[in-house]
Every structure is written in C-alpha cells, then in structure tokens.
Amino acid sequence: MKRRPSPTRPPSRLIPAILCIAIAALGFTIVMVRLEVTQEGYRLSELRAEIAHLQERNRQLRLETAQLTSHERLRALAPRYHLAPPAPGQVVMAP
After folding, report:
1. pTM tops 0.85
2. Measured between alpha carbons, how far is 63 from 57 in angstroms, rounded to an integer?
3. Closest to 64 measured CA to CA, from 92, 56, 84
4. Measured between alpha carbons, how far is 6 from 88 in angstroms, rounded to an integer?
5. Residue 23 CB neighbour total at 10 angstroms
6. Do residues 53 and 59 lie in contact, with contact meaning Cβ atoms separated by under 8 Å?
7. Using alpha carbons only, what angle is made at residue 23 by residues 21 and 27, rounded to the nearest 5 degrees?
C-alpha cells in the first residue's frame, strides 16, 4: 500500500468561515421576515376589527337617518313648526 503524502500547507479556513457567515445571515433574514409577517398579521387583525366597528357605526347611522326622515315622524312634527300641505295653486311645475 502507498502512503498518502502529507499536505504541505494547512487547509484553508476561509470557506468554512464564509459558510458560517452565510448561514448566520440566512438565519437572521428568516427571523426578520417572520417578525415582519407577524407584525403585518397583527396590523391586519386591527384593521379588520376597525372595519367591523365602522360597519356597525354605519348601520347605526343609517338606522338613525331612516328614523329621523320617516314620514310619520315628519307629519307629527309639522304642526309644531306651522307646516301644512301646500294650497292649490301654490305649487308650480316647471316645464
């Protein structure tokens, strides 16, 4: 059997160091991306809650508008402000 010749110079440590730095950078990038996704998830959840609140407020305002403009309510308020249906000839229709 032949013996292997011993190396004349030690193996380079540059490639393992570069690999360690690349793995660390990749791990840091993954952590940062996950953190960003989590933050956006919380923001999305807050926006959905705000949308639900605003939709409920919109529904309440529409209901209030419908109540305030109801014909029965306006007819009940008309005598208080001395309002009556127009007299014949008081309404003029534009051609």
Report:
1. no
2. 10
3. 56
4. 121
5. 10
6. no
7. 115
User: What is the DSSP code (8-state) at residue 7?
Assistant: P
- Specify the pLDDT at position 36: 98
Residue 5 tokens, joined: 């010749």
The CA–CA distances, whole Å, from 85 to 89, 90, 91 equal: 12, 10, 10
Q: Tokens 């534009």 identify what position?
A: 94
What is the percentage of the chain residues whose pLDDT exceeds 90? 71
Q: Where are the domains of the chain?
A: 16-81
- 3-45 per-position pLDDT tens digit: 777 667 777 888 999 999 999 999 999 999 999 999 999 999 9
